[in-house]
């Protein structure tokens, strides 16, 4: 039973990992680097010293999806796939360094979970390659 609880805690997505600071978001879009990996546009920035974990922001355009139900579904898919695969980011940076990441969904249609999850994993590997340079 304790093994299940430990696994559950490692795959959680708590409030501390959600990017909500306007100051950090502005810095991310002003100074951060970016790349495009269909269906995502990914922006990232090395966090400042007071960060305690990687932080993520997910955005879906109202222009492409008029109904809030559709936007919320896409965000749920992206959050769930990130939650299950965020361990891939653990070995990217040295101890004490963290990333601020923004995923912007740019596709015009809602893709199934399997597609979104595989593309998110591939985008994390591309992000790791960009950070190694």
Task: Describe the structure in your own words.
By secondary structure, this protein is α+β, with helices and mostly antiparallel strands. It contains four helices and four strands. The termini are far apart. It is an enzyme of class 3 (hydrolase). GO terms for molecular function: ribonuclease P activity. This is Ribonuclease P protein component.
Structural class: alpha+beta
CATH class: Alpha Beta
Ranges where pLDDT stays below 50 over 5 or more residues in a row are: none
CATH architecture field: 2-Layer Sandwich
Number of domains: 1
Distance between the termini: 42 Å
The CATH topology = Ribosomal Protein S5, domain 2
Strand order of the largest sheet: 1-2-4-3
SSE topology string: HHEEEHEH
Q: Averaged pLDDT, please?
A: 89
The Cα radius of gyration reads: 15 Å
Structural descriptors:
alpha+beta; globular; 133 residues; Ribosomal Protein S5, domain 2; 4 strands; four-stranded mixed β-sheet
Can you describe this structure in just a few lines?
This protein has 133 residues and is α+β, with helices and mostly antiparallel strands. Helix content is 43%, strand content 19%. Belongs to the RnpA family.
List the helices and strands and how they pair.
Elements: H1 2-10, H2 22-31, E1 33-37, E2 40-46, E3 55-60, H3 68-85, E4 99-105, H4 113-132
Helix pairs in contact: 3-4
Family: Belongs to the RnpA family.
Catalytic activity: Endonucleolytic cleavage of RNA, removing 5'-extranucleotides from tRNA precursor
Pfam family, one: Ribonuclease_P
